[in-house]
Specification:
heterotetramer; A: 371 residues; Rossmann fold; 5-stranded parallel β-sheet; two-stranded antiparallel sheet; B: 326 residues; alpha/beta; 7-stranded mixed β-sheet; 5-stranded mixed β-sheet; 12 helices; binds thiamine diphosphate; binds magnesium ion
Chain lengths: 371, 326, 371, 326
């Protein structure tokens, strides 16, 4: 269904075909050299490896859950590599590729899905907010942050922009629509980047919208564009244009990256209950990594050694992910009370000290032979 | 007609019975259709009752509850699934300002036979927002009925009672107990079984009353078993609004002590209300203050801390000890 | 500002000019006779009178508050007279004209603003839901009701339709947008009727949206149309078309009735703090009643006697409103506990009986000389 | 530097002082700009600080709180106005799942210095949803601070303390007391005045402690005055999260009796928590159970009934009598 829609609708921006042919788009010229494309290839391969390792680790009981990005690597790497250092990204919970580009170590992501942290990184340091699980909430945070940028006077050529990630399902949520409106009315420097992976858990796109998602933007008074979400170059070009629009004071854009969730919703999910294998095959042919490899190969821009080297690097990254995950220490029980409040709070202090006494009572009881 | 069912499957069977009994009963929510819900509680209903009666909604909780209200006005009896406790909050406005008040503000001209099913509570190793215990928010909201189940028998019958009620019912499902199994007498009749609002003495005892509900009942029973020094009476309160105080105060007047255990955070949790009320009604009978054993007053922590955060067997026993320390 | 927008945008549907000239619109042919237009004139005049009486009653302390519909009579009468008996309307809190058309007696409305009831009428009997004060909430109720109609199989030539009223400010609310989406995805028989009166209390339209409101609909995949909200004939024609579309299974429409709130937001409000008198003058020239009168006069369809008769009827209605308002009894204290629950509720019963005892204690104390 | 101010004007002056002190302080909300808010609490700020710092937002409470969170991440200190208590609920998700938890989930890397000002409570003859007392929902939510004021002095200082706090603060304004006037010592310094979290003995007494807050303080003081048979100590608790228990228990241990009065509904209201906690801490000192005087467990009624619905002088005195009946 989504397939047909894509074919019927000429507005899908594409720069690199599934066959590896580079094309040009009048509105989105992309000035990129071979080295940069090779770097993107590396990103794509490595985040896919991080992802598949995480899936295995979950199967082995090392993680409570994992939300795989399989199939969405290009949308994430393309958009995230369009960000400048000062820009700020507000992810949902599947943006491992974006995290990668923002310098978040995989172990930080794993820590969250292992239940060791709720996201251990510093959002300011990385320009990458914590994962947000309550669908749609982060779109408003992104918009507010962008309104802060406006008040800082940080709009202009060297301006700062914000990108907010969310899925096709999230476009139904009130918060997402309120964010569209706040951004529009305030002309805030924010890009709404929707990865339309055709599914919200078991619900197909037609349960969320009757028209292509990118068109939602026009109803709020700002541009929307649909890009081939499996085309890392198109995602890069379109995101860069949208971010530049935002940073220079031209307001928000909704980018709909048309892609596909190749895996289960999360490791808890069983997609065979609700979707056809045929869909998968169709999308496999549009794999985001394969087309970059084809392009590099067909144009002699990378040799076998390069691909081997990347694969070896992926193996090392995989190894590292496994080790780091397994060696992650559990938090101390008293961390429950950490950072609930910034200012001193007598109530929390009291609960903490009572609980410390309670825990200590076991130790002494243990020493004495126990209950 | 006994069947061995898990809590999850018992709710499923109860929903099926409700749909068979009344064509106005509908299921609504995210992934309740083909998938049968992320916990499979609506499994098979889509296949057998079709997309008009088992509605996969857009991803918008306010929309789900808001349209359920409209459906109820049109004569339907929607059973809404909120996928996880933590995702109730976008629906707070529709639930608290609309659903709960509609009958009162229409002076009885409109009924709101809407059931909101919410898998709640922690202990499943989940990421954030999947382990909350929001029952106190509901209990504090006039106009809602709030019930929860702890065993397959109640699961099967209470969901049907909830669907039959002309009031909005918050139906809290103890998600970490979904797979607990027991015999269910599906042959009884709705009219005969214990009413939804009644508390149940889950285990008789003489020295101390231990009150709990939902996921904590299993822990409470284990605690009663484990404490060989005292005879502990366990009450499954089942309904948090209204609370069946006669059953509770009768028990407390006998035992002289009350411990309340829940996964909701301590401050302003259901234990506060029960403690305040029971103390008022049993002032001269209480040999110790009502002791509350609850989650700490912090956000639900990352899952590797939840065993410390949630009241477990030891914390409940500690609460009982504290009651006997007076 | 809104003025200019109106002039720049040719899409405003108008059938009756401020000067009283009847025009035709190809998409909205209106087959209406003189008697029907006179009936609309009567509606307009009478609801304006009810409204102005209510404002006076509030000034006299008889009502706690009143939200005046002044200036919006045509939008309300036009749309409400397009409804069939079985149709269902979901008002906001200013739809006194719609209430009038649905057979709600003015005293019922006054009762709510006096604090005697929360809306005493039976929504089913009148096809008119209670007033909803929490902005946007009723748009979802309307959509759900419409989904119920679909399940009843009541879609088709003789089908039932729903209309949901709300203001320009309400279009910013998450619930309203979720309603748009639920309606679109389900193709529900509901018309969203937005009275854009240019103001949400003190906030002008540009704080709510950057583009004309009717355009929001396209983003959700259904048609939007802007109608001259001061033109009762255009409102009738456009609403009828939208309702018929809905009832025959063609899904939702967003109608933006472009109008103006001539009075204060409510009797509590002081609009001189935030808007220019100039705006008022401009809109006075577009008065929704005057143009109908002009049309009737200019075409010899009503004589002086007719207008006098309507004015006299208005006087009688006004008199009745005053009398009914003043004679409304206060509710009994124990009504607090009425209809909180449908099923028996021990807790409420207990509070009620305790409070009854408490109240009785004063009476006996009073008899004995009191505290 | 004493000035005679109403509560409303004192908050206004406090906000002005906060904005002058720190350019990162912003006002956000519906009609807070040119109009100065429907209660005029932000009056004059738009004129003097401009549209960038006093922001008339779209009509969407979730949007307001959600964007305030983003602004706070960017280093701002937004003061959000929710126009009326009943309109908080659309913002429940952003408040409970995001604002309250952000610091904890970021392990302290993010602070949320957001103040949410909410005019609350009844007694003003308003239509539905304009007279709610939602404080219990906030009190039960870990991560929020919850305070309320009862006089101009506190209004002036506590709003400034709230703005200075790096935690999210729910600042509840007793709307029916906005026009109460008193002398405010604006010359003191923020560092000197009573901290936001501390309770205040509003009237000393020896026989019974009467605890209240916000709009009920005036009623409580009147009750203490009216009851010539007993010496009643009135405590203005001021902070509902955290509650200053030492001040309360010290008082209750002296008086042996506690009556708690509030406009929130009884079940699960703040009185429940305070009763449960104080009973635990003062078990052997209490001569009667803690008595709660609260609104009934029904939706807020039409305004012609509110005088019966809200605890008034007589109901509070009745509560005191009940405490002495033990
Ligand atoms: C408010 C809310 N409701 C429900 C959920 C449960 N849930 C988690 S992911 C998901 C589907 C999201 O779909 P989409 O937005 O398309 O993102 P994707 O998972 O496809 O990346 C749902 C319903 C949630 N996290 N938050
Ligand atoms: C959720 C919510 N927030 C705030 C309010 C307070 N309020 C009442 S009317 C109003 C403005 C509404 O503007 P609009 O939607 O344009 O309708 P109008 O009053 O102009 O008819 C506001 C902010 C409310 N009733 N509900
Ligand atoms: Mg998706
Ligand atoms: Mg308006």
């Amino acid at each position: 269904m989504s397939e047909t829609a894509a074919h019927e609708e000429p507005e899908l921006i594409q720069l690199l075909t599934p066959e590896g042919e580079l094309t040009q788009h009048p509105d989105y010229p992309l000035d990129i050299n071979a080295e940069e494309i090779r770097a993107l290839y590396r990103d794509l391969v490595l985040v896919r490896r991080v992802d598949s390792e995480a899936v295995s680790l979950q199967r082995q009981g090392e993680l409570g859950l994992w939300a795989s990005l399989l199939g969405q690597e290009a949308a994430q790497i393309g958009s995230a590599r369009a960000l400048r250092e000062d820009d700020m990204a507000f992810p949902s919970y599947r943006e491992h590729g974006v995290a990668w580009c923002r310098g978040i170590e995989p172990k930080e992501l794993l820590g969250m899905f292992r239940g060791v942290t709720n996201g251990g990184w510093d959002p300011h340091e990385h320009g990458f907010h914590l994962y947000t699980i309550v669908i749609g909430s982060q779109a408003l945070h992104a918009t507010g942050y962008a309104m802060g940028i406006q008040r800082d006077g940080a709009v202009g050529e060297d301006g700062t922009a914000v990108i907010s990630y969310f899925g096709d399902g999230a476009t139904s949520q009130g918060d997402t629509n309120e964010a569209f409106n706040f951004a529009s009315v305030n002309n805030a420097p924010v890009v709404f980047f929707c990865q339309n992976n055709q599914w919200a858990i078991s619900e197909s796109l037609d349960r969320q919208t009757r028209v292509p998602i990118y068109r939602r933007a026009a109803g709020f008074g700002f541009p929307g564009v649909r890009v081939d979400g499996n085309d890392v170059l198109a995602c890069l070009a379109v995101s860069r244009a949208a971010l530049d629009n935002a940073r220079t004071g031209n307001g928000p854009t909704l980018v709909e990256a048309f892609t596909y969730r190749m895996g289960a919703h999360t490791t808890n999910d069983d997609p065979t209950r609700y979707r056809d294998a045929g869909e998968l095959d169709e999308w496999k042919a549009k794999d985001p990594i394969l087309r970059v490899r084809r392009y590099l190969e067909q144009n002699g821009l990378a040799d076998e050694a390069f691909f081997t080297q990347i694969d070896e690097e992926a193996d090392r990254v995989g190894e590292q992910v496994r080790t780091q995950c397994r060696s992650m220490p559990d938090p101390e029980p008293l961390e429950i009370f950490h950072e609930v409040y910034a200012d001193p709070n007598v109530h929390i202090d009291q609960q903490r000290s009572e609980f410390a006494d309670y825990l200590a009572s076991f130790e002494s009881a243990g020493a004495e032979g126990g209950r | 007609m006994g069947t061995n069912l898990t809590i999850g499957k018992a709710i499923n069977a109860g929903l099926r019975a409700a749909m068979e009994h009344d064509p106005k009963v509908l299921m609504m929510g995210e992934d309740v259709g083909k998938l049968g819900g992320v916990f499979r509680v609506t499994d098979g209903l889509y296949k057998d009752f079709g997309a008009d009666r088992v509605i996969d909604t857009p991803l918008a909780e306010s929309g789900i509850v808001g349209t359920a209200i409209g459906m109820a006005m049109r004569g339907y009896r929607p059973v809404v699934e909120i996928q996880f406790d933590g995702f109730f909050f976008p629906a707070a406005n529709q639930t608290f300002t609309q659903l709960a008040k509609m009958r009162r503000r229409s002076a009885g001209k409109l009924s709101m036979p809407v059931v909101m099913r919410i898998p709640y509570g922690g202990g499943i190793g989940a990421v954030e927002h999947h382990s909350e215990s929001p029952e106190a928010y509901f209990q504090h909201t006039a106009g809602l009925r709030v019930v929860t189940v702890a065993n397959p028998e109640d699961a099967y019958w209470m969901i049907q009672q909830a669907v039959r009620s002309d009031d909005p019912v918050i139906f809290l499902e103890p998600k970490r107990r979904y797979y607990e199994k027991a015999e269910v007498d599906t042959g009884a009749s709705l009219a005969e079984v214990t009413p939804m609002g009644a508390a149940r003495i889950a285990r008789p005892g003489t020295d101390c009353t231990l009150l709990a509900y939902g996921p904590m009942i299993k822990t409470a029973l284990q605690a009663a078993e484990a404490d060989t020094d005292h005879s502990i009476e366990v009450i499954d309160v089942r309904s948090l609004s209204p609370v069946d105080y006669p059953t509770i105060t009768e028990s407390v007047k006998r035992t002289g002590r009350l411990v309340v255990a829940h996964e909701a955070t301590l401050t302003g949790g259901p234990g506060a209300e029960i403690a305040a009320r029971v103390t008022e009604e049993c002032f001269y009978h209480l040999e110790s203050p009502v002791i509350r054993v609850a989650a700490f007053d912090t956000p639900y922590p990352q899952s590797r801390l939840e065993e410390h955060y949630l009241p477990d067997l030891d914390r409940v026993l500690d609460g009982v000890d504290r009651a006997f320390a007076y």
